[in-house]
Amino acid sequence: MIFKKLFNITLYVFVLLVPILPLKVKISILPLSADFIIASFLILFGILNVIFEDGLENIKLRNRNIQFFSIIVFIFLVLNAVSFFVAVNKGAAISESMRFFEYVFLFYFTYIIADEKTINRTFNLFFIAMLLAAAYGVVQFVFGLSPYTVNRNIRLNSTFVNPNYWGAAVNIVIFYPIVEMINKRRISLNDSLFLGLFIFNLLFSLNRSSWLAFLAGLFVILLLINKKFILSLPAFIIPLMAHPFTRKRFVTMLSVEKIAKDARFKLWKTAYMMFKEHFWLGVGNGNYRYFYPEYIERYPALFVRKELWSPHNSFLKMFAEMGIFGGLVFILIYLMLFYMVIKVYKGTKRYKVYALSLIGFWVAYLFQNNFNNLMFIPQLNVFAWLLTALIFKAFVLETKEAI
Prior knowledge:
The protein is mostly helical. The chain has one domain (2-258, 303-402). It is 71% helix and 3% strand. The protein contains 17 helices and four strands. The strands form two sheets. A two-stranded antiparallel sheet has the order 1-2. Strand 1 and strand 2 form a beta hairpin. It starts with a helix and ends with a helix.
C-alpha cells in the first residue's frame, strides 16, 4: 500500500504548508503555488493508488450524493471545454480550468483513499496550521509587519495574500471552539484561547464582509443547536465595538449613504452588464479581466480604477465568464458541497462537532462570496473542497460500520 501511504503523507504536508505558504507565481499559463505543486503530487499518488493498489474496478462512488455531484461536475467540465472556444485569452481559460480540475481530483481522491485515521489526523493538522497562521497574525499586529493599512490602521493578512482572504480563512476554523464549548457544556481554557486568537485575527483583518459572514454562520449554528442561544449573538458584536477603529468600521455598515457609494456596486454592475451582453456562453472562463477595460471605457459611470479587475462577487464573475448555464451549474456545485456537510450533520454521531463547525463555515463562505472572489483563491477555496470530502468520507465510513 505504498501509494496510499505516500498519498496520506502528502495530504498531511498539504494541510500543514498550504495555509502558511502564500507562494503564488505563474509561468506562462501554469499556476505555481504551494497548493498546486503539492496537489500535483497528491493527484499523482492518487492515480497510482487507484491503478496499482485499489484497482479501477474497486472505486466506490455508489453513494447517491456523490453520484449526483459527479453528474454536475461533469456538466461543468463540458461547459469549461465550450468556454475555451469562446475565450479570447485561451491561456486564462486553460489556467482557470486547471484550477478547477485540481479541486475535483483532490476531492475524489481524498474521498476514495482516506480512512478514519487519515481523516482525524488531517483535521488536526489543518487546525494546527491555522493556529500557527493566527499566531503570526498577532506578531504582525504587534510589530506592524502587515503591508496593508486603512486610515493608518494596520490590517492583518497573516500568511494569506490579503486581509479579505485572511478574514475568510479564519472563518474556516473559528466555529470549532465555539461548537466544542457548547457541545461540552463548559468553557475550557484551550477552547477559550483558540477562540480569542481567531476573533482577534478576524477583527483586525478589518474585513467587514468577513465579520458579517461570521455572524451569519454563527446565527445558523445557534439556530441548529437551540433557538434560545440566538439571544447570545449580540455578545459576539461586543469585540467589534471595543476598539475605536473596528467600531468605526462596523458603524459604516449601518450607513445607507456609505453603502450606496461603495465601489462594489459599480463592479457588480460591470459583471452584470458583461453577463447581459454575453448571456448564453459568457466571455470565456477566466476572461473577465480582459474585458473589464473595454467595459469601463464603454460605460464611464462604471469606472472605479483601471487596475481593479475583480468583480468582487464569485457568482457574478462566473455568470459573466460562462453565461447562464455555467453560472447556474457553478452555484449548484457549491450548494451540493454544502448539502453534503448538512447530510453529515443530520446523520452522524461521531462527527457532530466537525460537521456543525463546517456548516458555520459554509454559510459564512457562501455569504462572503457575494462580496469577494474567494472561490477563485486556491489557497482558500481548496479547503472548502478538501474538508468537505474528508467529513463526507468520515460519515460514509461511520454509517457502514453501523450497518
